[in-house]
Amino acid sequence: MRMNAKIKKPVTGLHIIGQIRTDADNDNKLKSEESFKLSLSRLIRKYRIHELGSYYFKFGDDAGFTGVVCLVESHVAIHTWPELQYLTLDVFLCNYSKNNEEVCRKLFSDICAYFNPLSVDKKEIIR
After folding, report:
1. Domain total for the chain?
2. DSSP letter string, the chain
């Protein structure tokens, strides 16, 4: 675990929150929690992080979904609004056994890429 020199506290992980805008061509991705769930599971395996469980809720046949995946390293949360071509994304990975900051950035980026974004507004928070 590394220390933040400015405030003399341990850096326990990286938390990235974002707002993603896409276009109408991606409506199916914004509506399909099953497709996203499979994609996210592949990314979790790719980056060798560990899924503990997940919960997804679909708001209706022609509506978005929300999902939360609990990880040993922390969590991923997503909320989609296909009618607005918009989603929010929250990725937090702790650094308990290793520095996961780059993995957090890559995971966030790969999830964004899945939705073919027009724009990504993100904020990184060092925890």
Report:
1. 1
2. -EEETTTTEEE-EEEEEEEEE--GGGHHHHH-HHHHHHHHHHHHHHTT--EEEEEEEE--TTS-EEEEEEETTEEEEEEEEGGGTEEEEEEEEE-SSS--HHHHHHHHHHHHHHT--SEEEEEEEE-
